[in-house]
């Protein structure tokens, strides 16, 4: 039986770095550099960031993070699931855990920026209840970007 666990992780760990490198390679294949808004490992290690690693039977298969922006909103960052495991609900489970932790931090809004060339991500976020919105700081309008937000309510 397969077991999925999602726990806080160190973005600087070898497992996390591998996932982040895979995500960077994927995004760099889709978008020009100026349309990629990637947080570095160092930025992910800041105290206002929660970084999660998903493991399937102990093997790292996905990650996600949120940045607490001055206790005003959570910004979802670094969402990734290994391509061969997409469609199994892992991304949804990561999002659920990120939102739960954002609520525990007292945040009531979650926002994200994703790209137009990522239909699976757009589908996931829509299924999670995110709605399109305009750019939010520090982003500017970019034809490659899709901005979304969700009100986080108590479960």
Task: Output the CATH class name.
Answer: Alpha Beta
Stretches where pLDDT is under 50 for at least 5 consecutive residues are none
Structural class based on helices, strands and sheet pairing:
alpha+beta
Number of helices: 4
CATH superfamily: Gcn5-related N-acetyltransferase (GNAT)
Please give the radius of gyration in angstroms: 15 Å
Most strands sheet: 7 strands, mixed
Features:
7 strands, 4 helices, alpha+beta, about 30% helix, Aminopeptidase, about 160 residues, single chain
Can you offer a commentary on this structure?
With 155 residues, the protein is an alpha+beta fold. The chain has helices spanning 14-30, 41-44, 90-104, 119-127; strands at 4-8, 49-56, 59-69, 73-81, 109-115, 131-133, 145-151. Strands 1-2-3-4-5-7-6 form a seven-stranded mixed beta sheet, sandwiched between helices. It is globular, with a radius of gyration of 15 Å.
């Amino acid at each position: 039986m397969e077991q999925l666990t999602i726990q806080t992780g160190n973005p600087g760990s070898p497992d996390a770095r591998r996932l982040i490198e895979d995500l960077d390679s994927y995004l760099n294949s889709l978008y020009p550099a100026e349309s990629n808004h990637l947080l570095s490992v160092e930025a992910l290690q800041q105290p206002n960031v929660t970084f999660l690693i998903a493991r399937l039977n102990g093997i790292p298969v996905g990650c996600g993070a949120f940045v607490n922006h001055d206790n005003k909103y959570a910004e979802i960052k670094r969402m990734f699931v290994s391509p061969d495991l997409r469609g199994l609900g892992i991304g949804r489970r990561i999002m659920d855990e990120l939102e739960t932790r954002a609520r525990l931090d007292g945040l009531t809004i979650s926002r994200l920026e994703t790209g137009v060339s990522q239909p699976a991500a757009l589908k996931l976020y829509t299924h999670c209840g995110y709605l399109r919105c305009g750019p939010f700081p520090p982003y500017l309008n970019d034809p490659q970007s899709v901005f979304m937000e969700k009100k986080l309510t108590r479960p």
